[in-house]
Structures are given as C-alpha cells and as structure tokens.
Amino acid sequence: MDIVINKEQLPEFAKQHFGHLYNRLGEGIYSSHETLKEGDVYLLGLNPGGSGHTKLGEFMNNTLTRTRNSYLNESWKNGQSEYAQGAAPLQKRIQGLLQGINQNVVDVCASNLIFTTSKSSQDSNFNFGFAGTFWPFHQAVIEIVKPKVILTFGNAKHLSPFGFLKSMYYDENNLDTFEAIPAEHGKWECYGFKTKFNGRQTAVIGLPHLSYYNPNKEKILEWIRNFSGL
C-alpha cells in the first residue's frame, strides 16, 4: 500500500507509528529537509552506527528544519580514529558514489532502512524486525521524492536493505527485471531489479555494504546510471 502524505506531516506520522522505538537512540533522514522533494535518488543504508547521540523522537522533531547532511557535515569516529567533517571512509565513498552517478550529494534524500542505532548488525541492540515498523515512513518519503532509483548499500539476502526490498517488491515471475554484475571485489556482486511504486517504474539497486566496499569504479557507476536511467 502506498502512503501519500505531505512533507509537513512526516514528524507527526513518525510519532504515531514508531511506538516505543520513538524513545530509543536513533536517527531518521540523514540529509537536509530540502531533499524532501522530487529527486532522482533515494539512498538507503541499513541503520545508524556507533553508540548513538540522540533520541529518535528528538531527531524526528527536527526533520522539517534540519539543514545538515550526515555524509558531509558530521565528524564520525571509526574505532579509535576520529575524522574531520565528511572525511570518514564511508562518507567519502558515499560522496564519490553519488558524484559518480551525476548527483549532487546535498540534493539526494538519504536515510536508513532501520532508524534505531547499533554498533553493528550483530549488536544486541539491533533488530531487523524493526524494518517493518519504519517502512511505512519510507513509503511516505518515496511518494514525496518519487525517485528513479532506490540505491541501497548492504545487499545480502537477509539483514540488508536490498534483501528487504527484494522480498517486498521483486516479482519472481518476471525474471527479466533482475540483473547481477560482478562488484570487482572478490566474489561479491551488485544487484538490481525494476518494480513499480504507485505506478511509477523504479529501479532498486543493491551494492555491498560501503563500510567494506568501494563502489567508485567506472564500470559499476556506469551500470548504476544505465540501469536506473539516470
């Protein structure tokens, strides 16, 4: 079911639908509120990492005024290393990826499938079942952004944003819509399929998780552009 609401309704929608998770550590839309408009790409990771620094409810309350972009304007820690704003390895890979498919990073709506924070998907705080709680919010965002492509990083069959979307939206009776190409990293692959959101053809692409994979290879970027129609 498609969920059609306007941008201004998102914070109240979150408050009504997130239940007790509203009071957990977490983050919602990683990009500026100005990206909550029609655009070519909706970028989707798994969930916020680290120890957490804000309650999800507090973060959601700032959805309509947020001007920061987590991939550009935040200083991240990775183990014992602390990086300048936008200079952590994952941030740099995201920046290169979006620029490589002809997107301005500040204009791309970016988020995570699951909004609650955990140090990893193996952490006791992580629960993939939360994806079902947060997906209606994503459906609302997708109807605002109307992307040509939902670009996910993390493409394992289970416990990944691509795996979740494939299980929900891939028509297994139409195998022609699915593609897999070598990721140029060992035996890893990149995946894509075509589906429809509210009648709009939309590409869904799954890259290996960018904490471990650098997608900024011309063959990969060209495939993303061509498969997505960017």
- From the helix content, strand content and strand pairing, which structural class follows? alpha/beta
Gyration radius (Cα, Å) is 16 Å
- Total DSSP helices: 6
Write the H/E string, N to C: HEHEEHEHEHEEEH
Features:
single chain, globular, 17% strand, 6 helices, alpha/beta, six-stranded mixed beta sheet, two-stranded antiparallel sheet, 230 residues
Structural features, described:
The protein is of the alpha/beta class. The protein is 27% helix and 17% strand. The protein has helices at residues 10-17, 56-61, 89-100, 131-145, 161-169, 218-228; strands at residues 41-45, 77-78, 81-82, 109-112, 149-153, 178-182, 189-197, 200-207. The strands form two sheets. The chain has a six-stranded mixed sheet, sandwiched between helices. Helix 1 runs antiparallel to helix 4. The longest helix has 15 residues, at 131-145. The protein is globular, with a radius of gyration of 16 Å. The model has no long low-confidence stretch (mean pLDDT 92).
Helix/strand layout:
Elements: H1 10-17, E1 41-45, H2 56-61, E2 77-78, E3 81-82, H3 89-100, E4 109-112, H4 131-145, E5 149-153, H5 161-169, E6 178-182, E7 189-197, E8 200-207, H6 218-228
Parallel strand pairs: 1-4, 1-5, 5-8
Antiparallel strand pairs: 2-3, 6-7, 7-8
